[in-house]
Structure formats: C-alpha cells, structure tokens
Design brief:
- The protein has 268 residues and is an all-alpha fold.
- Helix content is 65%, strand content 0%.
- The protein has one domain (10-264).
- The chain has helices at 2-6, 8-30, 40-66, 69-73, 79-83, 87-111, 113-123, 138-155, 159-177, 184-190, 197-201, 208-211, 221-225, 234-237, 255-264.
- The longest helix has 27 residues, at 40-66.
- The termini are far apart.
- The model has no long low-confidence stretch (mean pLDDT 91).
- The structure holds zinc ion.
Length: 268
C-alpha cells in the first residue's frame, strides 16, 4: 500500500495511458468499425485532452489538499469507522454509493443546459474507441472531484478500497468505450452486472432517446432501477450514427474548440 501511495502519480499515468495503448492495439485487430475513417488527428485531440485532464487532476487534487478541504469536510466519525465494517462490505458499499453518485451526476450533465455544454465534449466524438474514454472537458473532472470527495470522506473509505474502486472504474471505462465487440449473448448477460461495450455504445448514439439512456459508469444497476436502461441488438447498433446531430465537423473536435465548447456551444 505504501508503494502505491508513494508512486501514485506514476501508477495512475501508466494505468491510464498504458491502458489506452493496450486497447488501441486490441482495436487494431478487432475493431467494430473495421478501422474505417480513423483519423490520427482525432486521436491526437482525444489524447491531448486525456493528458490535460491527467495534469489538471494532479494540480486540482494538490489545490484541494493545500486549502485543507479534506480536513474541513471529514466528519468526526465516518460511517465505516462508526460501524467497524468488514473490508468486503466496505468495497461493496463504496461501489454502490459512488456509482449512485456518478449516475445522478451523469444524468445532471445531460439535463442541465450549462452542464451539457461541458459534457457535450464527450458526446460529439463522431466515432467511439478507447481514446473517447478520456475525452472530457477538464471542468467535468473537477466538478466530479468536488462532489465525490465529501462522499469518500463521509464514508471514510480506506485508501486500499479507494484504489480498488478507481482501478475497477478505469478498467470498465476503457473497456466500455473501446471499439471492440464481445459475443452478443455474453455482452447482454454481462451488461446486467457491469457496463459493457454493447451497453455503453447506445449512450453515444445521436438519437436523443438513446443519448439520454445508460448513464452508468461501472455498473448499470441504477439504469435498471430508475428506468433509463436500453439495450439494442448489435445489428441495430451497427446502423446507428455515433455522436451528436450537431457539432460534427472536424473543426468541432479540435482540442481548442473542445476546451472552449462551454462558451461557443451551438445546436445548429
Ligand atoms: Zn453522457
């Protein structure tokens, strides 16, 4: 545990960009889209945002540490400490609480107009592959840190459990965006437990009713619970358009335009 804590930045960097690299290699063999129209420029824009998000995460985390937000927010007796819970239960509860928060955060990003201007950066990618997984406006990551930190502190999540959750989250996010196709029956069954490539693909379709579905990040449980799950057969997915009906030109996906999108957003 000390090793992870001491080398957290390097491990996070290796996991994020190593993971992207591994899946880019896998995609070159088993891409859903057969590599059609892949653009190096698109990859560079997405990877540029991934790198920027990584750097901003480090500085923002340091900023929160310096201003002492954690010390100020930590309750006298966090939930896990109060009830001396076993590790397996802390892992499960952390997954449930954090995913419930992620679910409503994601729904709010789609529902509130200003938040959609930020989240549209993730959705106006006209193709879906592993590089889309880290294509987010930096404001989104900062907002998520600000709302998830109090929950981590209120629960009193031990460092080991937090690392486990983040590792699972990263793995599922990479797999669910990757341009790979699992056997349909396997994907469908697995999508009751975890967010799969087939399940998440619908969320990136341009048709509004599908864009506004499947909000889960790691688990799809709350989509089933709150009635926002949709599972489309592979044959139908293959005929659908990815991205948004607007903001579809290559200029719209240039990194400077993506960073400015909350200010220059348009729907024509
Ligand atoms: Zn979304």
């Amino acid at each position: 545990m000390d090793f992870i804590q001491k080398h957290f930045t390097q491990i996070q960097f290796a996991a994020t960009f190593g993971g992207i690299l591994v899946f880019m290699l896998v995609e070159s063999f088993s891409a859903r889209t057969s590599g059609q129209g892949q653009s190096v420029l698109r990859w560079l824009n997405n990877l540029g945002l991934a790198w920027l998000n990584f750097v901003i995460f480090l500085y923002f985390a340091y900023f929160l540490h310096v201003v002492g937000l954690a010390a100020w927010l930590t309750p006298v007796e966090p939930l896990y400490t109060r009830y001396a819970l076993p590790t397996w239960l802390m892992v499960l509860l952390t997954l449930v609480f954090l995913e419930l928060l992620s679910y409503w955060f994601h729904r709010a990003m789609h529902r509130v107009p200003f938040l959609w201007r930020i989240h549209a950066v993730h959705h106006n990618d006209t193709q879906l592959d592993v590089t889309t997984s880290h294509r987010h406006h930096p404001f989104e990551g900062m907002l998520y840190m600000l709302i998830s930190l109090p929950l981590f502190l209120w629960l009193g999540v031990p460092l080991g459990v937090a690392y486990l959750y983040f590792a699972l989250r990263l793995a599922v996010v990479l797999v669910s965006h990757a341009d790979i196709r699992l056997p349909e029956q396997l994907d469908r069954k697995l999508s009751l437990l975890l967010v799969t490539p087939g399940f998440h693909y619908s969320h990136h379709l341009s048709e509004q009713r599908y864009t506004d579905s499947n909000y889960g990040t790691v688990v799809p449980w709350f989509d089933y619970l709150f009635g926002t799950a949709s599972y489309l057969p592979q044959a139908k997915l293959n005929t659908q358009q990815v991205g948004l009906n607007y903001l579809r030109t290559s200029t719209d996906s240039r990194i400077d335009r993506l960073l400015a999108l909350p200010l220059i957003f348009r729907k024509d």
